[in-house]
Specification:
84% of the residues lie in helices and 0% in strands. It has four helices and no strands. α2 crosses α4 and α3 packs across α4. It is mostly helical.
């Protein structure tokens, strides 16, 4: 079961990175993130979240 969660999290993180533009265009931009990260900061935010999800997936498999 742990490995299925791992694979699902890896896939979810990959999809967040790959479809960051689509997610932003179909939801909304975050003004606070745009202030901190500059123009197109929301796209960068979703890519960072995707990388963090992948890191959390590896942490989940190794730590528990």
């Amino acid at each position: 079961m742990k490995y299925l969660i791992f694979i699902a999290l890896i896939l979810f993180g990959y999809l967040l990175i790959k479809y960051a533009k689509w997610i932003t265009d179909n939801t909304m931009r975050f003004p606070s993130v745009e202030k901190v990260l500059g123009a197109y900061g929301t796209y960068t935010f979703w890519k960072i979240v995707g990388v963090l999800v992948i890191v959390a997936a590896f942490w989940y498999v190794v730590k528990f």
